[in-house]
Amino acid sequence: MQVGCMNYFCPMSNEQLLRSRGLRVTNTRKAVLQLLQHSGKALSQADVERSLPELADRVTLFRVLQAFEENGLAHRVQDAHGVSRFAVCTGTCTGGHHHDVHAHFRCLECGDVYCLDPVSLPKVSIPKGFKLKASQLHLEGSCSACS
Amino acid sequence: MQVGCMNYFCPMSNEQLLRSRGLRVTNTRKAVLQLLQHSGKALSQADVERSLPELADRVTLFRVLQAFEENGLAHRVQDAHGVSRFAVCTGTCTGGHHHDVHAHFRCLECGDVYCLDPVSLPKVSIPKGFKLKASQLHLEGSCSACS
DNA sequence: TTGTTAATGCTATTGAGTTGCAAATATAGA
DNA sequence: TCTATATTTGCAACTCAATAGCATTAACAA
């Protein structure tokens, strides 16, 4: 299965993108994918419901977002309250950088979550017997709108 | 108000510790504080309920943990599912290190969360107008028991 | 066009987090 | 030690995110 390209220099239609991940093309998926691509920040399921009312049942949106995550179309990040938010990768998030830490900024005022540029971290010592698989860096504060 | 010392080299009874933060001494608070001190990892409210059944109502435990956080007796960290877990500071977490990032390890198998030694992070560029207040580094993988 | 498989909508459930209020209790002061 | 008061607790109720089961509908490969 071919892995779709999601950055600005390699345009691929959302339909192609969905198919490239083995997902069937439906109105709900196309709409949610487009919304995520243009939102500029990570969206919760409730955000999607608010932005696209009447689009689909709550459970369907839940499963669409879940499918996006499982198939690499979006990544999941928790906001300050532990609620899942979803964001597609953008042009700043390509290639080898995926192996670095994908940093996120959480606004403690409005709760919004923004993807930041990947950063490289110094090695962190972990206890014996522990196996490291991934790292997440969360920066917290206030976004430009709330500052 | 005096700030209580929580490391191994400056013993202070849990009663003194509670009073030093302006909290009244109750059986529930003493028991939960002791549990957190000896658990070696961050505990969720459900963990506390399981470890100390019949101790108190779940709302009371919720408020006890909330009071601990608000009064600096414990810090809150989310597990991989966004559920709050609480941990007291240990001997490795003293003085100036509090200004560094307090790293946590999340086991993706059993869900347990462990406090790691503080680490210093490189500067991360954040968007214009954003104000940074705190940072959290989450390492994910499997703990020694699950590896 | 059609059969198969995947996706959706609906119903219902779980669990964390939370509030309001009355009863119980820790603590300061008499 | 006793008492007054402010804090803490228990109970009931509620919100919301997350999620499972199942029947129906829709996508798409042949």
Task: Explain what the structure shows.
The structure is a homodimer of 147-residue chains. The first copy, chain A, is of the alpha+beta class. Chain A is built from 4 helices and 6 strands, in the order ααβααβββββ. Chain A has helices at 14-20, 27-39, 45-51, 58-70; strands spanning 43-44, 75-78, 84-87, 102-107, 113-115, 131-142. In chain A, the strands form 2 sheets. The first copy, chain A, has a 3-stranded antiparallel β-sheet with strand order 1-3-2. In chain A, strands 5-4-6 form a 3-stranded mixed β-sheet, with no helix packed on it. In chain A, a hairpin with a 5-residue loop joins β2 and β3. In chain A, α2 (27-39) packs across α4. Chain A is globular and about 45 Å long. Residues 1-8 and 91-99 of chain A have low confidence and may be disordered. The interface between A and B is large, with 37 and 37 residues. β6 of chain A pairs antiparallel with β6 (131-142) of chain B, so a sheet runs across the interface. Chain A binds a DNA duplex (30 and 30 nucleotides) through residues 23-26, 28-29, 44-46, 56-60, 62-64, 66-67, 81-84.
Tell me, briefly, the overall form of chain A: globular
Helix content of chain A: 25-40%
Element order of chain A: H for helix, E for strand: HHEHHEEEEE
Please compute the radius of gyration of chain A using only Cα atoms.
16 Å
Count of helix runs of chain A: 4
List segments of chain A where confidence is low: pLDDT < 50 over at least 5 consecutive residues: 1-8, 91-99
- What is the percentage of strand-forming residues of chain A? 15-25%
Q: How far from one another are the termini of chain A?
A: 45 Å
Oligomer: homodimer
Q: What would you call the structural class of chain A? A: alpha+beta
Instruction: Tell me the major beta sheet of chain A.
Output: 3 strands, antiparallel
- Total strands of chain A: 6
